[in-house]
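Title: Comparing notes on inverse folding

I've been comparing how different people in this forum approach sequence design from structure. To keep things fair, I'm posting one structure and asking everyone to reply with a full sequence. Here's the target:
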């Protein structure tokens, strides 16, 4: 969180993290389409010919006013391909919350585990261990989707909040973002008041 007293803005950063093609960009696209243009920036997409995220996707949205300040939420995705591990760490820097987008398909389980472990290492290295992490179990409509209990056990996720989604159908996308923002605000209010 960064506060700009001159412009009366509070800047937050939410990063969508997860394996390639798990639905990170789809989440951002659905959110972008659902927000009126007067309260969001244009969406920046840096991708390859095959529409795979190369560096990151990004846009900013405004949330009205709180105590005379205007919160701005900067939403980012990270590239999921294995060769972009260093890029993921750079994009995570300064994050206020992370949404881990897991692909529910059984055949993607090992990729989910590897990305989850790598994200944990990056968060530790960047000293971001206390920020809110929300897990989105995406692609729940796939015939090979594993039960959420199996996914949680495989990733060793116990007490983290998680939500189910089908991002392509815009199901669970808004709920994930709203929950993430509530958790992020709650943590920052506690940090300021203690």
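Reply #1:
Here's my take.
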């Amino acid at each position: 969180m960064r506060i700009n007293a001159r412009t009366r803005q509070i800047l937050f950063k939410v990063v969508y993290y997860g394996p390639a093609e798990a639905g990170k960009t789809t989440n951002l696209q659905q959110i972008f389409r659902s927000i009126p243009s007067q309260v969001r920036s244009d969406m920046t997409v840096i991708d390859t010919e095959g529409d795979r995220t190369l560096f990151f996707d990004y846009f900013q949205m405004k949330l009205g006013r709180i105590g005379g300040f205007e919160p701005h939420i900067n939403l980012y995705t990270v590239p999921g391909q294995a060769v972009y591990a260093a890029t993921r760490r750079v994009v995570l820097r300064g994050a206020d919350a992370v949404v881990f987008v897991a692909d529910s398909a059984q055949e993607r389980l090992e990729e989910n585990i590897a990305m989850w472990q790598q994200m944990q290492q990056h968060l530790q290295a960047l000293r971001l261990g206390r920020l809110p992490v929300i897990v989105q179990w995406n692609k729940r409509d796939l015939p090979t989707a594993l039960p959420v209990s199996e996914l949680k056990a495989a990733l060793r996720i116990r007490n983290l909040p998680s939500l189910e989604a089908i991002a392509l159908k815009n199901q669970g996308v808004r709920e994930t973002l709203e929950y993430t923002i509530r958790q992020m605000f709650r943590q920052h209010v506690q940090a300021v008041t203690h």
